[in-house]
Write a structure and sequence with these properties.
By secondary structure, this protein is an alpha+beta fold. It has three helices and 17 strands.
């Protein structure tokens, strides 16, 4: 039997209100497609889950997560493109609460890098690359703070103290990766994330996609050729007082992420390459090896033209074993 049965009526009510219902009557008739029509609050995130044996529906762990969907409209049709032809599946959609401090970033496409005529463009910001990110992820709304880092790691390497809501600074890439590992272990052990999820650094492509939040301009808020609006969105050389500041004090981008344009420069997962790949790239991970790791986003430091380093396309890198007072990070949560 083709995977085309949809779970409705009594079991659909587990998703509560808002709820998900299939376009079939409650007697579970076979649909022409495998999936659900989800009715709910636009902007909310739903976990799409299935069970192959309806008798196991009340068994802990029986429901398997297939996907996450952020409703762009209601109702919204979701189809199961992975459904095998010989398996029956019953579906439900459960409204998700965002993990603490995280923002849902949907899968999508964007143009990575900067055009040749972008003001203050650097040579390693091209060629323009059409990037497809096929998987959703959650991203930290803020840079990891000194409070969060010390609570997990037992130390605070930061140069700038006095307010532990500042981002942790002076962390190396290695430090940031180890933090993500320990965070994953803690959250799995507490049952707050599934065993197949993990915390990690964003890839460089994920970082720029999230920073742009659907824009193609120099910054997430516009081109700002004179850098007159930057002070509303980030801490950089002209307004930082040559130090970091508590996270979340500046305006967020359209996806709710704060401090993507400044405060501390953020480590990414990738090895650094002197140019972008160009063409079309699906879920790019960067080079297989290298000497330095990418960091993004600009920072508080006086560079002589530090404002330009806060642009969405700006790239930089450093050796992974070193950390300085302008280096920090934020985390991503995704399926392994």
């Amino acid at each position: 039997m083709r995977a085309g049965l949809a779970l409705v009526a009594a079991l659909a009510c587990w998703a509560t209100d808002p709820w998900a219902a299939a376009q079939t009557p409650a007697d579970l008739e076979i649909q022409l497609y495998a999936g659900l029509t989800i009715t709910g609050t636009v902007g909310s995130v739903y976990s799409i889950e299935y069970v192959a044996d309806l008798a196991q529906a009340n068994t802990p762990g029986a429901w398997q997560c297939l996907d996450y969907v952020q409703l762009s409209s209601s109702p919204c049709l979701w189809t199961d493109t992975s459904a095998p032809a010989t398996e029956t599946r019953y579906y439900r959609a459960v409204q998700m609460e965002a993990p603490a401090g995280m923002v849902f970033i949907p899968s999508g496409t964007f143009t990575m890098g900067s055009p040749d005529d972008e003001t203050d463009r650097q040579g390693d910001e091209g060629p323009l690359t059409a990037v497809v990110l096929s998987r959703w992820f959650w991203m930290g709304r803020y840079e990891v703070t000194q409070t969060e880092y010390e609570a997990l790691m037992g130390n605070n390497p930061s140069e700038f103290r006095g307010d532990s809501s500042r981002p942790v600074d002076s962390v190396s890439w290695n430090d940031a990766v180890f933090y993500c590992l320990k965070l994953t272990q803690r959250e799995r052990a507490a049952g707050r994330i599934p065993p197949t999820w993990l915390y990690r650094l964003p890839t460089e492509a994920e970082w720029e996609y999230a920073a742009r939040a659907g824009t193609t301009t120099r910054f997430s808020y516009g081109d700002d050729p004179g850098y007159f609006e930057l002070e509303d969105f980030g801490w950089y050389e002209l307004n930082s007082g040559e130090q970091t500041h508590p996270v979340g004090q500046k305006l967020p981008n359209a996806w709710g992420l704060c401090d993507m344009h400044g405060n501390v420069s953020e480590w990414c997962q990738d090895w650094y390459a002197a140019s972008l790949p160009g063409g079309i790239s699906i879920d790019p991970q960067g080079p297989a090896s290298g000497e330095t790791r990418v960091h993004r986003g600009g920072d508080w430091v006086y560079w002589g033209n530090g404002a330009s380093h806060c642009r969405s396309a700006y790239r930089n890198s450093f050796f992974p074993e070193f950390g300085y007072s302008n280096f920090g990070f934020r985390v991503v949560l995704s399926k392994n």
